[in-house]
Design a protein that fits this description.
Layout: E1 4-10, H1 18-26, E2 36-40, H2 51-59, E3 65-68, H3 78-90, E4 94-97, E5 103-104, H4 108-141, H5 154-165, H6 170-177, H7 181-189
Length: about 190
């Protein structure tokens, strides 16, 4: 007989996964408390690196069911979510997502839904990259400086080079300017 598990994730300690657990129970899933895994971890962390999800995988067996409220509980990256669902399917585990009408993501309709979501996510990612590159090109054409501002002004860089020529150590100069040795070496090398 298949067992049902729930995975509820929140990103910060100020949030609580309890609402997700209540939503899953309200949808009619009777889940025993020891089969509910909750954790506080960013969705950007790969699901394979999450301690709670790893514990969940250790507990689950073929023909079990995993319920999540939304796809983003599994991860923000559509490719990571898609890979996770495929891994679960290979293990014989069905994945139900309440936000998608409770569709089993391992079914034919679920796979189609996942493919559409993955395609849209990739499209959005590509658009974001295009907009970012266009914005950088426009800023560069307008003569705006790009990147992080220099840690030392032009005068400070000149003083660094003078101090090095006078035999002061990189470490001593870094302490004098309250900066890193790397910053001093970069100023030295720009001469």
């Amino acid at each position: 007989m298949p067992r049902t598990f729930a995975y509820a994730r929140v990103s910060t300690i100020e949030q609580t996964p309890e609402n997700q657990v209540l939503e899953i129970k309200a949808a009619g899933f009777g889940i025993e408390p020891h089969r509910i895994i909750t954790e506080t971890v960013s969705g950007s962390m790969a699901i394979t690196q999450r301690a709670g999800f790893s514990r969940l995988l250790d507990k689950m067996e073929k023909s079990d069911v995993l319920v999540v409220t939304k796809l983003d509980r599994l991860g923000r990256d559509a490719i990571d979510v898609s890979t996770t669902v495929a891994k679960l399917e290979k293990m014989g585990i069905r994945v139900h997502c309440l936000a998608l009408g409770g569709v089993d993501l391992t079914s034919s309709a679920g796979k189609m839904t996942m493919n559409v979501i993955t395609a849209v996510a990739q499209f959005e990612r590509d658009l974001l990259i295009e907009r970012t590159q266009a914005g950088l090109a426009r800023a560069k054409a307008q003569g705006k400086p790009l990147g992080r501002p220099a840690a030392l002004s032009a005068d400070q860089q000149r003083i660094v080079r003078e101090k090095i020529e006078n035999g002061e150590t990189v470490s001593a100069i870094a302490r004098h300017f309250s900066t890193s040795r790397q910053t001093i070496m970069r100023a030295r090398d720009q001469a």
